[in-house]
Amino acid sequence: MTEPVIHGVLLALGLILPLGVQNVFVFNQGVLHKSFFRALPVIITASLCDTLLILLAVFGVSFILLDSSLFMPLLIGAGVIFLFYMGWMTWNSSPENTHEDAAKKFTFQKQVLFAASVSLLNPHAILDTVGVIGPSSLRYEGEDKIAFALACIIVSWLWFSSLALAGRFSGKLDKSGRYVLVLNKLSALVMWAAAIYLAVSAVW
Q: What does the alpha-carbon distance between residue 152 and residue 15 come to, in Å, rounded to a whole number?
């Protein structure tokens, strides 16, 4: 059982480490909120979404979804629209906002909604999960397959928790709100770049 666990950990780390919209959003929420616990809705939602995608990939349900000729175009279209919207909201954050003022805009409901959206309306996250984790799990059966899936899931939960915690420590270094402003601008650029890339890749 050691092999599937190590395999799952390394594979999950390789997929989750690169900078992306989901990672940027989780880190940003860690910066904005005074307490790590106030960012828990984002952490838990992002982790649950990843857990769902991993389970679907490992146990094959997602392959059925991807067989639909309408599923991926609809997903990509929704993802592009949402990323442009999120980028616009993030870019237009007022420079006068303090951490507290900015955090107030992200209520519990908004944290959950946005975290779920950047997780589930992200075609690349789904394709990475289905295209890499799904096929990789085919070599295992029974308890080994379960161990592989659990390893991937645990890495996801630990990563998002660590990312928000790192954001919280970074936020403590700047009380003026300027760091948040710069981070928001960079986050918006990442979101818009991801949206453009998705749109172009869908056409070509």
A: 10
